[in-house]
Amino acid sequence: MDAKYLNPIIAATDSVFQTMLSLEPKKKEVSIQEDLVTDKEANVIIGMTGDIKGSIVYSFSSEMALKVVEAMSGMEMQKLDKFVTSAMGELGNIISGKATTGLTAQGLSCDIAPPQIVTGKNINISSEADKVLMVKFNTELGEFDVGFSIN
Amino acid sequence: MIWRDEYKIGVELVDKQHKELFSRLGDFIQTVRSDKEKAEKKEEVEKTLNFMGEYVVTHFDAEEALQKRYNYPDYEKHHQIHEDFKAEVADFQHQYSKNDYDEDFLLEFSGRLLTWLINHVASTDQDIGEHINSAKENEEESK
After folding, report:
1. ipTM for the complex shown
2. The domain containing residue A118 runs over which residues?
3. What is the β-pairing status of strands A116-119 and A123-125?
4. Domain total for chain B?
5. HEC profile of A38-83
6. A86 to chain B, minimum CA–CA distance in Å?
7. Is the torsion defined by CA of A105, B73, B60, B66 positive or negative?
8. Taking CB atoms and an 8 Å cutoff, what residues of chain B touch A94?
């Protein structure tokens, strides 16, 4: 899989965290995995269709998801309820929307599907892809992963 | 709601209205997240959502009038985003009563609304500010 497809996703992640939350995500290691396995509890899956068929998965620890929603709402969040997961789902939707704009600049036309939320521990998100590119980010509110797979 | 000065677009009227909108959205979300009895809560949810919804219309109208006044090139696109948003709120109000004021349905809607509105103000609306302020500068120069 060509890593250049990953750059618009990384750029969109940076930009959205900065404008919405005044946070600068620090990109850590990029790895290639066979499957999308995550130890993080709040997962947002965005399906992609068009010139690139696949999915982007944003995985946040429960703690980070709560902190992000607290930072937006100014209210205390205690658990991963539908309010928190839906707010995070929309965040994934916004980042992915921006990423498709970046992909358009590379001549690729893509559409995204509404976010799907999967919560729980040690999740294996099955996909048709045989490789998943995984980027780890660190922020002041915690760590999160962005996985990208092309079918 | 947390207001950040970075959300400002540099047009005083719009920034003032965005702050008010955040405040009304905050009231709505407080209500949504309160532990009240269903009967009492649904009334307050409807009340605070209407209160916010009224201001959404006031603000969208004012912002669109400014866009027209300064020939904002993305006016049509932005207008459509506003129309879609208003339709989504109206659709929620309709479905919420039809779903017997389902709590999860309410939480899902309001969580999405929170993120959507922040992004709309912090990102989508920024281009309007840039356009209006450069148009104003040009007007000043040609005087």
Report:
1. 0.94
2. 3-25+33-144
3. unpaired
4. 1
5. ECCCEEEEEEEEECCCEEEEEEECHHHHHHHHHHHHCCCCCCCCHH
6. 5
7. positive
8. 115-116, 119, 123
Q: Tell me how far CA of residue B29 lies from CA of A94, B23, B44, B68, in angstroms.
A: 21, 10, 11, 32
Q: Which residue do the tokens 């899956």 mark?
A: A45
CA distance A43 to B111: 15
Q: For residue A35, what pLDDT band results from cuts at 50, 70 and 90?
A: confident
Q: Is the Cβ of A83 closer than 8 Å to some Cβ of chain B?
A: yes
pLDDT given at position A2: 65
Domain count, chain A: 1
Gap between the Cα atoms of B17 and A87, Å rounded:
23
Domain for residue B77, yes or no? Answer: yes
Residue in chain A closest to B119 (alpha carbons) equals A20
Query: In which residue ranges of chain B is pLDDT below 70?
Result: none
Phi, psi of A96 (to 5 degrees): -65, -35
pLDDT tens column, A82-122: 999 999 999 999 999 999 999 999 999 999 999 999 998 87
- Domain of B79, in residue numbers: 43-141
